[in-house]
Structures are given as structure tokens and as C-alpha cells.
Amino acid sequence: MEFILFVLTHRMNNRDRWRVYKRVSLMFLLALLALTVVQRGSINMGAPFELERQARMHPPADYDDKQENGIKAFWKSSKPSTSESPTITHDNRPTTWDVTSTNCTANHNLSEQDWFMGLEANFKQFLLYRHCRYFPMILNHPEKCSGDIYLLIVIKSVATEHDRREVIRKTWGKEQVVDGKRIKTLFLLGKSSNEVERANHQKLLEYEDYIYGDILQWDFLDSFFNLTLKETHFLKWFHTYCPNVRYVFKGDDDVFVSVHNIFEYLEMSSKVKDMFVGDVIFKAKPIRKKENKYYIPHALYNKTFYPPYAGGGGFLMDGPLVKRLHVAADTLNLYPIDDVFLGMCLEVLKVTPIKHNAFKTFGLVKNKASKLNREPCLFKSMIVVHKLLPTDLIRMWNLVNSDLVCSKKAQIL
């Protein structure tokens, strides 16, 4: 710059030289200012994204809450694939989520077999990609398991059920410390199975996680058959990140839970090894009626009875057993019904689940119209009651935790 000024001003008088100096200096300052603005703009790109996510917090009126949208709902809409994870042993666990790509193709060897050709489309889709066991993570919070955790609450949910998650955070799923024992809460999700609104649902979910930091999400579609994937992914995640969690409660997002009663039960069962307790079903038979949601063809399961398993509405298990369940799960083929699959894992480990009357995964009584299903004194004695809408849940929570006077607490714990 000094050389240019020297050439320009060599034959000018002092006044002209001063004008040239001023113009060139001004141009240099403007260039420097422009460069600074560009650099700052590239650093702060996150701010407009956060504003966009805030603008989308209220879902559009045409949201579709249905979770099953045909055969595509079982896997990713474009490439239903994943990379296989190496077998994990108790002594050789990963220290981070080690699945970072999706590269799995359909098992077309099945297509030419007669038994396969006779199956319904959804079971064909399930079997073609059953070997695709693990998918990358979209949202992860390993810090949830830092330090000593007495109880980790884990809830299965889907993207559109924001109101259910919100009520749980305000009631029984609230993170707290009770008598020096820490409670942490996580929600398990896949990707929205609504192809049209998937991008909007994802942005809403990311903003929700930005606020609360309690969502684990994987890159597979949320669907009925993929609930088993949600089970295996949590087992792997827990084995990877949670060395010091004493107990795990795992349940659905439409249940009433008494954490006080959980603590009371755990204190009485502290010496029980391989504890797995819930509403256990013994000698359940596979359903063969095709119109039933839980229908299973003989080609997938030809035994008379399922192994004992707990209803998925909610169950308790100790941390060391969860890690062993992950090891067992990797030895089995995936099964369409997640509750039964976990029972199969327990069978591999030769662990018999404990049936407890305080776990009600079909309501307090099976007659939905019964007034007993709305009796707060009965809820006060339970650990889990299934099938409550968010409004019913918060109403019952407020009643149970008010100055409620009951004639006698049921002796079920």
C-alpha cells in the first residue's frame, strides 16, 4: 500500500497527496469492516436456526398423529438400512455410540422361500431387514448417566406425543434427589413415521430437547414393529454409558407411576439378585388371529407358549441385569413384539421375572367403565397404572399428592 501511495503522490502537491491518502485509507477501513462482518456472520449461524426452531414450537393444524403409515413405517423411508455392530461382551463394551453410518440391504435370500411368500406385507418387510440391528444416534445425552444414579426413568415415546412427555416431566418423571438418591429421566424416540410432516416434527423435537436435554433419538422410524429396535438400542446405550446406575424403571408415556412406592419396594428388595419385576404374564399364547394387532404367524414363532414376560406399560430392573440383557439380546433374532422379545432375553439368562400386583398394565380393573379406575386411594397404593391420557394423569397426580385421606392403604408392597 505504501508503494502505491508513493507512485501516486510522487508528482502531486501536498494538498492532492492528502486527498489520495484519505481515499485509500477509507477504502482499506471499509474492506476491513466488511471482512469482520462476514466472519461474525459465519460464527453466529446457530442463532437464526434457534429462532426458526422457536417459531415452529406450535405444530400446524394438519398434524397427523397416526404412527402406522403402511409398510414404509417400519424402516427408513428411503434406505431401510444400518451397519452391523460387532458383538458386545461384558468385558469389551464401547465407550461411545459406535454406529455412525447406514449401510444395510434387504436379505433377498428369503424371497424365494415358500413360507416367506405366504406372509403379510408387514412381516415380509420386518424379516427382510431383521438383520439390521443398530442405527446411528440423532440425539444423545451420555451425561445423564454421569456419577451415581439410583433410579433411571426411561420412557418410550414418539415425536407427536409432546403433551405426554410434558406432563411426565411435571409429575412422576421429575428429576430430583430423594434421601440423597438421584433420579434421572430419559425419553426414547425414533424418527417420525409421518413422511409429510417428518421434517417439522424433527425440528420441534430438537427444540424440545434443546430446552430439556432428556431425549435419546435414533435414525429409525417409530412404528409398532420397531419398538423392539427401541428396546435393543436402549440396552446397548445403557451398557455403553451407564456404569453406575443402580435401578432402571422403563415404561410407556401413558402411565401413572408412584416413585415413592418404587423406592419403598426397592428398599425391601435390595438383596434380590437379577431383579426384574412387573405385571408378568406366564404361559401367554401367540395370537394367531390376523385382525389382531399382536398377530404372529407360525413362521415367526411356532411354539405353544411365550416365555414369561412383563407387560410393557412399566417394569423395574436392576442396572447390572440391564447390561446382561444387552448381551443376551445380541444372541437372538429380533422379534416383532418388544415385550415378548425382552422375555426371550430373560429366558436366555435363565432369569425369571417377578410378578407384582402393584403393576397394573391393563388399568386397575379391565372394565374400562368401572369407577375403580378413577379411585385415587387405589392409585396411591400402586406402582404403575397404564392407559391414562395426559389430562387424566395430571388430575390423578394432583389428587394422590393432595391431603388425600384413605381408610386403609392396600397391602401390596
Describe the overall structure.
It is a single chain. With 413 residues, this protein is of the alpha/beta class. The protein has a domain at 116-360: Alpha-Beta Complex (Spore Coat Polysaccharide Biosynthesis Protein SpsA, Chain A), CATH 3.90.550. 35% of the residues lie in helices and 15% in strands. The protein has helices spanning 2-9, 14-43, 46-55, 114-117, 121-128, 162-170, 198-212, 227-241, 259-268, 319-329, 338-348, 376-379, 390-400, and strands at residues 137-139, 149-156, 176-178, 181-191, 215-221, 245-252, 256-257, 276-281, 309-318, 354-355, 359-360, 384-385. Strands 1, 2, 3, 4, 5, 6, 8, 9 and 10 form a 9-stranded mixed sheet that branches. Strands 7-12-11 form a 3-stranded mixed sheet. Helix 6 runs parallel beside helix 13 and helix 8 (227-241) packs across helix 10 (319-329). It is globular and about 65 Å long. The relative contact order is 0.11.
The end-to-end distance, rounded to whole angstroms, is: 86 Å
Strand content bin? 15-25%
Give the fraction of residues assigned to helices.
25-40%
Overall geometry: globular
The structure class reads alpha/beta
Low-pLDDT stretches are: 2-11, 32-90
Major sheet: 9 strands, mixed
Quantity of strands, as a count: 12
Average pLDDT confidence is 83
Could you tell me the radius of gyration in angstroms? Answer: 28 Å
Please give the CATH architecture of one domain. Alpha-Beta Complex
